[in-house]
Amino acid sequence: MSVPSHGDRVEKQIREATERGEFDNLPGAGQPLRGLADRDPDWWVKKMMAREGLDAADALPPVMQLRREVAGYPESLVDEAREDNVRELLRDFNARVLDERRRPVFGRHSPPVVATVDVEEMVARWRELRVQGVEQDVTDGVTAPTEPVTPPSRRSWWRRLLRR
After folding, report:
1. Is 31 left (phi over 0), alpha (psi -120 to 50) or beta?
2. 159 within some domain
3. Does residue 82 lie within any of the structural domains?
């Protein structure tokens, strides 16, 4: 006589529960199991990140995060209302880039680097985008003009100076 294995006991309990009707009317009964067709080995990480509200970009190395950040400039700065705030953000970015460059490097390969941004050039581009945004807001609320708008006549700078 052989001793019943653990698997045999489990199968017996499942069979008896089925005969008693304990598995009847369960949610999802008769439907295929979800996620079996997905062959992505990182399914559990993606599901956990979605459940916890995490962003995959936060797991990137600091250099790659800086590259993603600079790729969005100056468009990502348009919501800033003051030029001083924009300058401070850009100075902070440059400081983080320099801090990243000072980190020790391990291995044979040279590390990826991020270029610092020219604060004055980026502020000028920010100003242009702000002006375009204001013009866009104005034109969105205005219907077609009834009369053609003529630009004011341009005088040379020295005529304006002599007129004073």
Report:
1. beta
2. no
3. yes
Instruction: Kindly report, residue by residue over 99-151, the tens digit of the pLDDT.
Output: 999 988 888 888 889 999 999 999 999 999 988 876 666 566 555 455 555 44
Whether this model's pTM surpasses 0.90: no
* Residue 41 within any structural domain of the chain: no
**Which residues are CB-neighbours of 48 under 8 A, at least 6 positions away?**
54
| Domain limits for position 74 | 60-104+113-139
| pLDDT tens profile 32-85 | 877 677 778 888 888 899 999 988 888 888 999 999 999 999 899 999 989 999
- Which amino acid, residue 133? G
Question: Residues near 50 by Cβ (< 8 Å), separated by ≥ 6?
Answer: none
Domain count, the chain: 1
The first and second tokens of residue 74, run together, are 């100056």
